[in-house]
Amino acid sequence: MSSFERYLTLWVAACIVVGIGLGHVFPGTFRLIGSAEIARVNRPVAALIWLMIIPMLMKIDFAALRQVGRHWRGIGVTLFVNWAVKPFSMALLGWFFIGYLFRPYLPAAQIDSYIAGLILLAAAPCTAMVFVWSNLCEGEPHFTLSQVALNDAIMVVAFAPIVALLLGLSSILVPWDTLLLSVGLYIVVPVLIAQGARRLLLANGGPERLAATLRRIGPASLVALLVTLVLLFGFQGEQILRQPLVIALLAVPILIQVYFNSGLAYLLNRATGEAHCVAGPSALIGASNFFELAVAAAISLFGFESGAALATVVGVLIEVPVMLSVVKIVNGSRGWYERGMPVANRASAVQNSSLGKGDAR
Q1: Quick one: CA dihedral 100, 104, 107, 108, positive or negative?
Q2: d(CA 73, CA 275)
Q3: Digit-coded pLDDT (tens) for 26-76
Q4: CA-CA distance, 101 to 140, in Å (whole number)?
Q5: For 97, which DSSP code?
Q6: Mean pLDDT in the chain?
């Protein structure tokens, strides 16, 4: 680990402060950048996400995707947490904290709207940033790509019914343009670019050149992550300074939800004997949120100035620092995780199956 990566937490904290400060001092500039959207997807942020995820996607050998089936335990755990636990646990947390415990400290007219925003936030798993989290915890890239693609397929049919059930609405307007554009922008196009670059490098220098290129562009991914943080907090700098208490209270159920669901997925993977390289991304996918879709749905259903929209934005703000803390926990607990006998046997099997195969085929 480089010194830059070692102090990543410090850089994240600095970027949050810088983003809030710049957003307060130059609100017009950030409004202009924030308005560069297509179907609620911000183009500058999308470009930065490309810089973050393309290096990881370049590591993927599509010929090896057929082996993902051996990680059926991790796939099952992730699906269970994403679709059977996360939306409903967030609803319970929202009703308890926002609807009961914090009610005296929040605007009464917005209580139900805040809870709706939290539910929208948890109703769909993340599409793009999980590639970054998986890479930081040395996750199995083929599992990550397969799991994200599977979640996206389920999301198309399950998002609206789950939200309708939990919000008690008879009809949900799904922002299909945002959903489909995000899938294309954050999965299809980056995969095509990454695999094209991978084939070109392998054809003109072999695995050694691919590995050397990945080492060189690795820091660019982390820089893009930090710039994204500055932009996200800059977009909401005025909002944060204007109503810090509301934002802090909305963050509480989101934080609990992230740690609860990531911990549940991590422990279930350990109990079933799944390898750590799968348990890490499984925990991170299980806890992350598709915030572009959540924000778009909240605005479509409740309006731009609604409490629901604000709640989803709070999810955007805390997504990166909180998920980085989960990455740190996953990495720091690897020794404990692999001391379990089923896990030790599973890790050994995964290692043996990969003998003789280079990191970059």
Answers
A1: positive
A2: 9
A3: 988 988 988 888 877 778 888 888 888 888 778 877 776 677 678 889 999
A4: 40
A5: I
A6: 83
Task: Report which of 265, 297, 303, 299 is spatially closest to residue 281, judged by C-alpha positions.
Answer: 265
CB 123 within 8 A of CB 163: yes
| Measured distance CA(322)–CA(284) in Å, rounded | 10
- Residue with tokens 């994240």, as numbered in its chain: 12
User: Model confidence over 151-204: pLDDT tens digits?
Assistant: 888 887 888 888 888 887 545 566 677 767 777 777 788 888 988 999 999 999
Q: Domain ranges in the chain?
A: 3-350
Task: State the Cα–Cα distance between residues 247 and 254, nearest whole angstrom.
Answer: 11
37-38 and 41-42 beta bridge pairing: antiparallel
Three-state SS for 141?
helix
Class of domain 3-350: mainly alpha
What the block records as the tokens of 63 is 């010929």
CA 75 vs CA 243, 320, 331: distances in Å: 40, 23, 20
Longest Cα separation, the chain: 65
SS3 355: coil
